[in-house]
Write a structure and sequence with these properties.
The chain is of the alpha/beta class. It has 3 domains: 292 residues, Rossmann fold (3-Layer(aba) Sandwich), CATH 3.40.50; 107 residues; 51 residues, no CATH class. It has a 4-stranded parallel β-sheet with strand order 4-3-9-10, with helices on both faces. The protein has a 4-stranded antiparallel β-sheet with strand order 5-6-7-8. The longest helix is centred in the last third of the chain and has 27 residues. The mean pLDDT is 92. The structure holds zinc ion. The site of zinc ion (ZN) has 4 residues, from helix 8.
C-alpha cells in the first residue's frame, strides 16, 4: 500500500456535484447543524424497480454521510398517489383508483425497509395536501405567474426569466419538443398547475373548478410545507431534471420570492438493463423485490452502492452475482476478525511488521472516508474496501495481532457506517453477547430457583417485567429460554 499524504480538509468536508452550477462544491448547509433534503419519490402505479431502489439507496448513503459528519438530516420523500398512469391502471384492472397506489406504496416501503434504508421523516401524499397545493397556486395567480385556461390552470413560463437554468436548456424551441402541447395554453411550453376534471377521473373542488393538481406543483408545495422556503438538497433521478425539476424551481422561486430555492441539486444516474432503458414493451423491468429475493437484500445493497451514483448503472445478473461473492468474502473476514478479537490479549509491544500493517490499514480508512466525501465516490471506496480485505486476509488473519485486528475491525465498522450492509454483525454483537446476555441468563437462573421453591408469583413478575423490556421468556419442562422481541 502506498502511504501518500492525506489532505486533512478532505476528511472533514463533503464535496458534491451540484447540477445547478455544474460544479463539484463544498457542502455548506443553510442552517447547520440541520440539513433539509427532499427526494422526489415514486408514482406508485406499478412495482418499484431496481432503478427506484438504486436512487433510494444512493440518497440513503448521502444521509448516512451527513450523519457521519455530525449533521442532523431532515429528509422527506413524496408519493404521487394520483396521476394519469394510476387512473389508467385502475381502469385496466377495473378497481377503484385508490387501490393502485395503496398496493404499490406498500410494496415500495417494504423493499426499502428490507434493503436497510433509513426511513424518511414523512412521506407526503398528494391527495393529503390538496388544500396546500391550491393555496400555492393561488399565490402564483396573484403574483401574475399563472393563468386560467379552458382545460386547467397554467404556469406562464415566459414570466419567469431564469427558466432552463437547471437543465441548461435555454432554447425555447427545444422545450416545445419535449413538453405535451395543449391548445389553450399561451405558449406550448407552459405547464399545468391544475387540470380540470375529465369524465371518470378523480377530482377535488378548487376556486377555478373541479379537477386535480399537476405533477410538478406537488413537490414545490409539500417540500415548502415541511422543509421551509429554501432547502439544502433536492434529489431525484437524472431523467426527471427536465421538465419536472426545472418546473419545480420556476414555481417555487416565483411563489416564494427566493433564489436559489434549492442550494444543491443532486441527481442520480438511470439504470439500464443490458444497455437498454427499462420499459414495459421490452419486458425488461426488474422488480426490486425480485432482485432482493434472488440475491438477498444486503448483497443487492452492496452491489448498488459499489458503482458511482452519477453513472448509468447497467444491470446484469452476472455482475450482481460477482458482487455478491465479494460481499460474502468481506462478511466472512469481519466475522473472523470479531471472533479473534473476543479472546485476544492486548498488545504490549508492536513488531515492525505489525506496526507497518497497522498504519497501512489506518491510512486506508482515511482514504476510504476521503473517497466517500469526494462526491460520494463509492466506486473508489469500494476498490479500497476490497484492497484492504485482501490485505487483511493475507497478512492479518494468517498472523493475528491485537493492534492489527483492532485496526481492521475499525476499518470495516467505518465502511459500514456508509454501506450499512453489516449492521447485523456490528449491532448483533452488542445485543446477543456481553453484559446484557449475562444479566438475562442470571435473572432466569434466579427465576428457575424461585419456581423450584414454588414462588410462582415472583417468578411471573420477573417474566412480565422482562417482557416489557423486550425479552420474551418461554418455559420448557426443566429450563427457561429467552429471545429478544
Ligand atoms: Zn418532484
Amino acid at each position: 500500500m502506498s502511504t501518500s499524504h492525506i489532505n486533512e480538509s478532505k476528511l472533514k468536508n463533503l464535496f458534491i456535484r451540484n447540477t445547478l452550477t455544474g460544479k463539484k462544491e463544498k457542502f455548506e448547509p443553510l442552517k447547520p447543524p440541520f440539513v433539509t433534503l427532499y427526494h422526489c419519490g415514486i408514482t406508485p402505479y406499478d412495482y418499484s424497480h431496481i432503478g427506484h431502489l438504486r436512487a433510494e439507496v444512493v440518497v440513503d448513503v448521502l444521509r448516512r454521510t451527513l450523519r457521519f459528519l455530525g449533521y442532523t438530516d431532515i429528509a422527506i420523500s413524496n408519493f404521487t398517489n394520483v396521476d394519469d398512469k394510476i387512473i389508467k391502471r385502475a381502469k385496466e384492472e377495473q378497481i377503484h383508483w385508490q387501490e393502485i397506489p395503496k398496493r404499490y406504496i406498500k410494496y415500495h416501503l417494504d423493499v426499502t425497509k428490507k434493503i436497510n434504508n433509513l426511513p424518511f421523516c414523512v412521506y407526503p401524499k398528494v391527495t393529503e395536501h390538496i388544500e396546500d397545493i391550491i393555496k400555492f397556486i393561488q399565490i402564483l395567480i396573484k403574483k401574475g405567474y399563472a393563468y386560467i385556461g379552458s382545460t386547467g390552470v397554467y404556469f406562464e413560463v415566459d414570466k419567469y426569466p431564469y427558466y432552463g437554468q437547471l437543465s441548461k436548456r435555454k432554447n425555447k424551441e427545444l422545450w416545445e419538443q419535449e413538453i405535451e402541447v395543449l391548445k389553450d395554453k399561451k405558449r406550448p411550453y407552459d405547464f399545468a398547475l391544475w387540470k380540470f376534471k375529465k369524465p371518470g377521473e378523480p377530482y377535488w373542488n378548487s376556486p377555478w373548478g373541479e379537477g386535480r393538481p399537476g405533477w410538478h406543483i406537488e413537490c414545490s408545495t409539500m417540500s415548502t410545507k415541511y422543509l421551509g422556503k429554501q432547502i439544502d438538497i433536492h434529489s431525484g433521478g437524472k431523467d426527471i431534471t427536465f421538465p419536472h425539476h426545472e418546473n419545480e424551481i420556476a414555481q417555487s422561486e416565483a411563489a416564494l420570492g427566493v433564489n436559489p430555492w434549492v442550494k444543491y441539486w443532486f441527481h442520480i444516474g438511470v439504470v439500464t438493463v443490458n444497455g437498454q432503458k427499462m420499459s414495459k414493451s421490452l419486458k425488461n423491468i426488474t422488480r426490486a423485490g425480485d432482485v432482493i429475493e434472488e440475491f438477498g437484500a444486503m448483497p443487492v445493497r452492496y452491489y448498488l452502492i459499489s458503482s458511482h451514483y452519477r453513472n448509468v448503472l447497467d444491470i446484469s445478473y452476472s455482475d450482481i452475482e460477482a458482487k455478491k461473492k465479494e460481499y460474502e468474502r468481506i462478511t466472512g473476514t469481519i466475522k473472523t476478525l470479531l471472533t479473534i478479537f473476543e479472546d485476544i490479549e492486548p498488545s504490549y509491544k508492536m513488531e515492525d511488521r505489525d506496526k507497518n500493517l497497522f498504519y497501512d490499514i489506518m491510512k486506508s480508512r482515511a482514504r476510504f472516508i476521503t473517497a466517500i466525501l469526494d462526491d460520494l465516490n463509492t466506486a473508489k471506496a469500494n476498490l479500497i474496501l476490497n484492497k484492504v480485505d485482501r490485505l487483511v486476509n493475507r497478512e492479518v488473519l494468517t498472523k493475528p495481532n491485537y493492534s492489527t485486528v483492532l485496526a481492521a475491525i475499525d476499518f470495516y465498522s467505518t465502511a459500514n457506517r456508509f454501506y450499512a450492509t453489516w449492521d447485523d454483525l456490528f449491532k448483533g454483537k452488542l445485543e446477543s453477547q456481553g453484559l446484557v446476555h449475562n444479566l438475562i441468563e442470571l435473572l432466569l437462573e434466579v427465576r428457575g430457583k424461585l419456581r423450584e421453591e414454588k414462588y410462582y408469583e415472583l417468578a411471573d413478575h420477573i417474566r412480565e417485567e422482562l417482557n416489557k423490556l423486550g425479552v420474551i421468556v418461554g418455559d420448557d419442562d426443566k429450563k427457561s429460554n429467552w429471545r429478544l422481541k
